[in-house]
Amino acid sequence: MHMLYNSDSFAVVHILANAQEVASAAEGDAPRPVLPRHGFEIVDKRSGKEVYLDGSWAELFQQQIESWQRDTPTQEEVEDTLERYASLAQMPLVVH
């Protein structure tokens, strides 16, 4: 896990896949590779909700991050974008 962004309003964490993991369907089966997946967790601290982006959503968000790296946006621009993604949030934030 890598914290990518943290402000009073939002936190963004990149959760990296571990391509070296293996899984077994049942005891005695030969290990099989686990598909590497990664995702992003966006926490809206104001509403107390979080959204996890994976698959095509994660790919779109990764493209947004790459754009930010090229163009260096203002904090307001970053927060506006995060707010659009956070509008997808349905899960209340639960402390583990």
UniProtKB/TrEMBL annotation:
Pfam families found in the cross-reference section: DUF3567
UniProt protein name: DUF3567 domain-containing protein
Organism encoding this protein: Tepidimonas taiwanensis
